[in-house]
C-alpha cells in the first residue's frame, strides 16, 4: 500500500506541471524506500586490528558526512558494522547475518585475505555486491561476478619490488614469509613472477604466526652465498620482528617489505631497524610529499587532513582502502540511480576514472580491482618516516 507521504506527493504533482510532478514523486518514492544499508565486517580487534580499526573509523566518519550532506539518491545511508575479532569463521557468521537478517544492500570488508575468502561464496549465493579490503590476488582472480576489492594485489607488490631491484642491479633474492593467507599468497606470487622479472630466488624461509624470533631463518639466509636482497612477504607483527632480527644479525643487503605493513605502526614496532626498508605502497603514506601537479595529491591530502583531525592519529593505507570502497559504492549507487543489487554491481564493474587513495580505478568485466602498477609508489623509511624513492 502506498504511504501517506507518497500519496500526498502524487496528489500535489497532478495539480502542477509535469516537472514538479516528477520531482515530488521522485522525492516521495526515495523517502518511501528507507535507508540504503551498508554492511561491514571488519577486524576492529584481534591480530589484524591495525587493519580493521582505521577501516571502521573511516567508513563511520564518511557515512556521517554523506548523510549530513543529504545522503545518496535522497536517502540516508545506514551503516551496520560487526567486529570479527580477526577470526575468519566470525567473519563468515557476521556476513551471513548482514545478508539474511539485516538485509543490507552491499557488503564492505574482510580486513584481510583470511577474513575475506569465506565471505565471497556468501556474496555470490545472495547476489550482493561485496568489496574486500584483503590484499591477495586470489580475491579477484578468477573474476567472480559479485566480488571486488580496493587494495593493490600481492602480485603487484612483487612486480613493483622487482622493478626496484632491477633499477639497483639486484637479481638474487631471499624470501622469508609468514603463515597467514596473504603471506602464503604473496610468496607464491613472487615465486611465479620472479623469473620473468629477471630475479632468481635462491633462499626461501618461513615463520609461524606466533613466532617472536626469526633469527634462525635469517641466519640461514645470511649464510646463503650470493643473496643480494631480502623480501619479507607478510603483515602484522611478523615483519617488524623480521626487521629487528635482520639488523641484529648485521645484515646489510636491501630489505623489502610488502604493502601489508603500510602504516606508521610498522615503523614504531621496528624502531631504528626500519631505517632503509623499502616497500611498495599507496601514495596516501606520502600525501604531503607528492608534487603539486600530481593528480592524486588532492584526494590523499584531503583524506589525510580529515582523518587526522577527527581521530588525532596518523593515516594508514588500510583506512584508505575503506575510503575507496565506500566511495566506489556511493559512485555506483549514483550511476545506477538505484540501490538494486544487480544494478549496483553492474555500475561497480563499469567504474572508470575514479581517483582514490589507492590510485585511478578503471574496472571492467575482467578486472574487479581496476588498478595498474603505476598506482603503487616505492617508499623507503628515512629518519623514522616514509619517503618517496626518487
Which stretches are low in confidence, meaning pLDDT under 50 for 5 or more residues running? 1-32
Mean pLDDT: 92
Strand tally is 14
Evaluate the radius of gyration: 23 Å
Determine the number of helices (DSSP H or I, runs of at least 4 residues): 14
CATH topology (level 3) name of the largest domain: Rossmann fold
Distance between the termini: 64 Å
Order of strands, widest sheet: 2-1-3-4-5
Topology:
Layout (H helix, E strand, L loop, with lengths): L3 H11 L3 H16 L2 E7 L6 H20 L8 E7 L4 H13 L5 E4 L3 H4 L3 H7 L3 E3 L14 E3 L4 H14 L4 E6 L3 H14 L5 E7 L8 H8 L6 E5 L4 H11 L6 E3 L6 H7 L7 E4 L15 H15 L5 H20 L4 H9 L4 E2 L4 E2 L15 E6 L2 E4 L2
Parallel strand pairs: 1-2, 1-3, 3-4, 4-5, 6-7, 6-8, 8-9
Antiparallel strand pairs: 10-13, 11-12, 13-14
Helix pairs in contact: 1-2, 3-13, 7-8, 10-11, 13-14
Amino acid at each position: 500500500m502506498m504511504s501517506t507521504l507518497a500519496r500526498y506527493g502524487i496528489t500535489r504533482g497532478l495539480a502542477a506541471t509535469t516537472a514538479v510532478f516528477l520531482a515530488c514523486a521522485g522525492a516521495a518514492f526515495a523517502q518511501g524506500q528507507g535507508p540504503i544499508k551498508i554492511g561491514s565486517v571488519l577486524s576492529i580487534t584481534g591480530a589484524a586490528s591495525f587493519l580493521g580499526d582505521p577501516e571502521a573509523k573511516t567508513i563511520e566518519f564518511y557515512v556521517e558526512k554523506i548523510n549530513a550532506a543529504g545522503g545518496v539518491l535522497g536517502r540516508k545511508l545506514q551503516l551496520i558494522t560487526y567486529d570479527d575479532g580477526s577470526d575468519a569463521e566470525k567473519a563468515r557468521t557476521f556476513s551471513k547475518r548482514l545478508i539474511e537478517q539485516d538485509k543490507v544492500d552491499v557488503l564492505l570488508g574482510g580486513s584481510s585475505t583470511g577474513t575475506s575468502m569465506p565471505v565471497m561464496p556468501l556474496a555470490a549465493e545472495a547476489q550482493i555486491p561485496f568489496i574486500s579490503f584483503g590484499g591477495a590476488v586470489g580475491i579477484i582472480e578468477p573474476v567472480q561476478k559479485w566480488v571486488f576489492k580496493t587494495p593493490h594485489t600481492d602480485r603487484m607488490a612483487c612486480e613493483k619490488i622487482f622493478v626496484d631491484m632491477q633499477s639497483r642491479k639486484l637479481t638474487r633474492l631471499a624470501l622469508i614469509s609468514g603463515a597467514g593467507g596473504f603471506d602464503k599468497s604473496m610468496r607464491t606470487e613472487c615465486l611465479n613472477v620472479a623469473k620473468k622479472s629477471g630475479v632468481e630466488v635462491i633462499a626461501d624461509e618461513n615463520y609461524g604466526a606466533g613466532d617472536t624470533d626469526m633469527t634462525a631463518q635469517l641466519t640461514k639466509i645470511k649464510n646463503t652465498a650470493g643473496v643480494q636482497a631480502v623480501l619479507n612477504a607478510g603483515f602484522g607483527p611478523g615483519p617488524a620482528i623480521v626487521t629487528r632480527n635482520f639488523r641484529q644479525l648485521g645484515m646489510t643487503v636491501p630489505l623489502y617489505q610488502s604493502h601489508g605493513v603500510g602504516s606508521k605502526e610498522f615503523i614504531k614496532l621496528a624502531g631504528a631497524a626500519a631505517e632503509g626498508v623499502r616497500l611498495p605502497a599507496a601514495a596516501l603514506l606520502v600525501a604531503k610529499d607528492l608534487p603539486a601537479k600530481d593528480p592524486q595529491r588532492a584526494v590523499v591530502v584531503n583524506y589525510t587532513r580529515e582523518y587526522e583531525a577527527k581521530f588525532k592519529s596518523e593515516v594508514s593505507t588500510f583506512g584508505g582502502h575503506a575510503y575507496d570502497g565506500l566511495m566506489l559504492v556511493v559512485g555506483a549507487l549514483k550511476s545506477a540511480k538505484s540501490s538494486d543489487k544487480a544494478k549496483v554491481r553492474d555500475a561497480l564493474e563499469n567504474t572508470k576514472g575514479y581517483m582514490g587513495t589507492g590510485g585511478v580505478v578503471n574496472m571492467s568485466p575482467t578486472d574487479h580491482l581496476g588498478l595498474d602498477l603505476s598506482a603503487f609508489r616505492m617508499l623507503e623509511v628515512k629518519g623514522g618516516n616514509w619517503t618517496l624513492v626518487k
